[in-house]
Amino acid sequence: MASKRKKNRKFHRRDEERRFTVRGIRRDPPDVRKLSQALIGLAMAEVERQAQADHAGRDTESEVTAEDGGEPGGEVNA
């Protein structure tokens, strides 16, 4: 008898980048509170991505500096 696998895909998406779909509903007047929360969330996510990229760049730079003899430019003073 073949074993059945659960089709719980949310656990398979942990390492993948999330994708969101936004469907607009026109309201008059627009819900400024919801719009501002969405904008703040996007800005915070962008800042977090930039911080992670900067941190990863510093880690790589410090590894190269340690291998080159301690000079930041990668040159060894004799």
Description:
The chain is an all-alpha fold and 78 residues long. The chain is built from 1 helix and no strands. The protein has one helix at residues 32-68. The longest helix has 37 residues, at 32-68. It is elongated and about 65 Å long. The N and C termini lie far apart (72 Å).
Question: How would you summarize this macromolecular structure in one to three sentences?
Answer:
This protein is mainly alpha-helical and 78 residues long.
Primary descriptors:
47% helix, mainly alpha, single chain, 78 residues, 1 helix, elongated
The radius of gyration computed from the alpha-carbon positions, rounded to a whole number of angstroms, is 23 Å
Biggest pleated-sheet summary: none
Helix run count: 1
Mean pLDDT: 76
Could you give the topology of this structure?
Layout: H1 32-68
